[in-house]
Give the backbone structure.
Amino acid sequence: MRPNVWTRTLVSVTAVVGLAAGSLATAGTSFAAPDTQPAVSSGVSVLAVNNLGLTSAEAKKVQSWLKEYWGYTGAIDGQLGTNSWKAFQRCLKEYWGYTGSIDGVVGPNTIKALQRLLRNYGYTGAIDGIAGSGTKAAFKRFANA
C-alpha cells in the first residue's frame, strides 16, 4: 500500500507543477501587445478606413457630398470607410473611368479614377494608382472646394 501512496502523491505534485507552469507560460503571452493595423496608410490599402490624408473635418465634407449625390447612407463621421468609398466608386464609375467592382476597396483602380477627377483640382502627376503626396494634396483641395 505504501508505494501506491507515493505514486499518487508524485503524480499529484507533477500535475500541480505542470498546471502552474502552463498557467505561467500562457500568462506571459496574454500580456503581449495586440495585433493592430495602422488606421492610415501612405499609399493604397485595403483598410476599413482610408481618408487619404484628409482630416476628419475634410472627410465629413466629402461624406456630405457623397450623401447628397451618390447614395451614401452612412454616418457623417469623418471616417472614409467602405461605404463612403462605395459611394465614391459609383461617382468614379459614372464619370471618371473606374471599371472595377463597387466594393469600397481603395485599390489602384479606384485611385487611378480618383486621380482623373483630381485633374480638376490641380493634380498634375501620373495616373498611376498610387496615392502619393500630389494625389493627397489635390484630394484636400477637392474636399475643401
Remarks:
- The CA atoms of residues 84 and 91 lie 11 Å apart.
- The longest helix spans residues 2-30.
